[in-house]
Inverse folding.
């Protein structure tokens, strides 16, 4: 068979961040991994499932390190490279930092796909790194039966301006910068049923760099920051709740969602990761009894290079909203608020 005729997504059981390990299984894997290190300059490790590690190198500066790779979510190699690179850089922006340098992480079935395809994947990644004003300076590659591609990235940030997913406070407002539905639309792409208009929206959102994270890192009123990826909005809200110490009250009518996603979930275009997330986080989520079960899955849909989820002091929420829209995130919205739970209340509540 002609190597160029083989679709990239045909190698993927699930694409993009939908290929992440089930959250419950990941918790079991990490359960016995040591979380306390003698190195006092390690400011952020694996304790709270943050987006990247943080190492203090001076009183005023820290390095951010992350690695992220995924399987193909689209068939076009150049676009796949752009998506994977933007998604990897998002981990740095989600810590409030500026990316500094990147290396490529490559797995490629060399006897099944052409070298032209690999070159185009790299081309896409290099172009995204140029947009981020950093070099793609090297990397590591292996012969692998399933294509995987991503980046290892180093960033830098003022030591006292690092943002984590665990700093949210009761009273904060919650902001989301991109619409949900990426995993659902990706399922339709793989099935060959997504229309041209919806595909255009998909590509716009999934390749858009989360550059505003660097600006958010400099805002003292921004108390917590993360990006919405493989665990869906619901999973990342739960992580931000500090395992139920806070209550995340979401107004679902305010949450931005790619319009076509609602109909697609009713047609069964749902990635397996959405069901895994619902299974893993379901006991911590509350939907009213009249909620359409299909529509619930929109909120556990795994995103690839999804939006930034921000917990910000209420007096600065409007200012942040306006600034994020100036950055080009037109669908940014205030989606809820944070309160203190009472009794046995679920930590993540979806109201409408």
């Amino acid at each position: 068979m002609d190597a160029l005729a083989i679709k990239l997504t045909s190698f993927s059981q699930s694409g993009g961040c939908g290929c992440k390990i089930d959250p419950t299984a990941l918790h079991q894997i990490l359960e016995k991994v040591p979380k306390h290190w003698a190195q006092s300059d390690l400011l952020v490790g694996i304790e709270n499932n943050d987006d990247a590690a943080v190492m203090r190198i001076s009183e005023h500066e820290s390095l951010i390190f992350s690695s992220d790779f995924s399987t193909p979510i689209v068939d076009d190699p150049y676009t796949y490279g752009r998506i994977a690179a933007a998604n990897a850089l998002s981990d740095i922006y989600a810590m409030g930092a500026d990316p500094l340098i990147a290396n490529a992480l490559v797995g490629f079935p060399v006897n099944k796909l052409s070298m032209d395809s690999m070159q185009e994947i790299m081309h896409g990644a290099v172009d995204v790194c140029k947009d981020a004003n950093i070099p793609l300076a090297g990397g590591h590659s292996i012969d692998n039966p399933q294509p995987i591609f991503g980046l290892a990235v180093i960033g830098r940030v003022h030591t006292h301006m690092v943002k984590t997913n665990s700093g949210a406070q009761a009273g904060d407002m919650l902001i989301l910068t991109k619409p949900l539905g990426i995993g659902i639309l990706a399922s339709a792409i793989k099935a060959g049923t997504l229309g041209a208009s919806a595909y255009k929206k998909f590509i716009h959102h999934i390749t858009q760099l989360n550059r505003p994270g660097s600006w958010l890192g400099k805002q003292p009123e921004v108390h917590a920051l993360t990006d919405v990826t493989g665990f869906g909005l619901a999973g990342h809200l739960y992580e931000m709740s500090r395992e139920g110490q806070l209550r995340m009250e979401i107004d679902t009518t305010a949450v931005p969602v790619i319009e076509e996603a609602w109909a697609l979930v009713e047609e069964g275009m749902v990635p397996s990761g959405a069901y895994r997330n619902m299974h893993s986080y379901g006991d911590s989520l509350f939907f009213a009894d009249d909620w359409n079960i299909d529509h619930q899955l929109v909120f556990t849909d795994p995103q690839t290079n999804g939006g930034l989820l921000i917990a910000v002091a209420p007096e600065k929420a409007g200012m942040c909203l306006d600034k994020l829209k100036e950055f080009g995130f037109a669908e940014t919205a205030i989606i809820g608020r944070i309160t203190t739970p009472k009794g046995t209340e679920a930590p993540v509540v979806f109201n409408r």
